[in-house]
Amino acid sequence: MLEAFISGFWQVVAWPAFGYMLVGIAIGFWVGLLPGIGGLATLALMLPFSYSIKDPVSAFAFLLGMLAVTGRHESGTRHSARRQGRRSRRSARHP
To answer: Residue 20: its pLDDT value, please?
Structure first.
């Protein structure tokens, strides 16, 4: 089991897969900034592009990098909006 993990790790950090992962991270971060588009919608939009990638490991690295960044960024904006709502309610009660 450890051998399979190590083999998979080295396949992901090899150059073609790692390059696709970096592209996926950049796209995921950019799409995560857009309001209303979440990680699953971005995954659905990027799935046809992953079919054109010949190596399956590179395709999964692309999708994984995109989905990992979108999920993190999306939750950060949600929490900051919630905090902003609390501030506005407090200022409305205490003028």
So the answer is: 95
